[in-house]
């Protein structure tokens, strides 16, 4: 019931805005501009080309207005979605994707021997933008409400899928992909990588590359080892399977708390947040509960969630 009422409000506001005083103001400005132009070039006010000029100026002003209106409408939709999904604050909007991608290095202490030959392992993306990145692992919980929530709130995230919990419902993740989410590699069976031989690790990683390519039409470029555990063979195998980067995480989100890697127990610009596709049988809450908690933390600290792929 509440849902329907909010939707009604949203479209009414949108309509009111489009036909509102600013629209008329825009036309008035356009008319003044045309009048000034007419005087400056000395052509007669009633010249045959005047209506065309007027039209062009009006079209220009209307174009500029509609861009502003679009941004306003998007923000309005976000406010409505935040209310609908029980977020106390509206999520902040991330800045545009950086024109130049940051130069990423493997985090100190996270290197393997000859690290420079292998994909980089990092927990934070170097940036001064006040953004964090949301990554969601495994895939056992397939909650349709979660897909709806993220789409309506326009919160970007990146998925790291492990086939053994995904294969019973590929269409769920296809929907996720269709909504703009990148599906990445978290191995076939979620084994502890350092306990496996190079060949076994390669099967786990390349096998998942093949599966994602077959099911979703795109070969991942990002890989995250189960539990964040890896050795040199893992990175060597990942590279041979076509992996370009190995993003780990600097904070982990649950339905009721956030765990931090750093001593200051805080978020930092560019931090990667890990969470999981889990449901009520795994933790005390639903996926939307978890997102509400993440977004409360992130927004209270003044961060926006940005798209990881925009920075890599
Ligand atoms: Zn995992």
From TrEMBL:
Domain NodB homology positions: 130-312
Pfam families documented for this protein: Polysacc_deac_1
Database matches in InterPro entries: Glyco_hydro/deAcase_b/a-brl, NODB_dom, Polysacc_deacetylase_ArnD
Family matches, as PROSITE patterns: NODB
PANTHER family: GLYCOSYL TRANSFERASE-RELATED, SECRETED PROTEIN
Protein name (database record): NodB homology domain-containing protein
Taxonomic lineage: Bacteria, Bacillati, Actinomycetota, Actinomycetes, Kitasatosporales
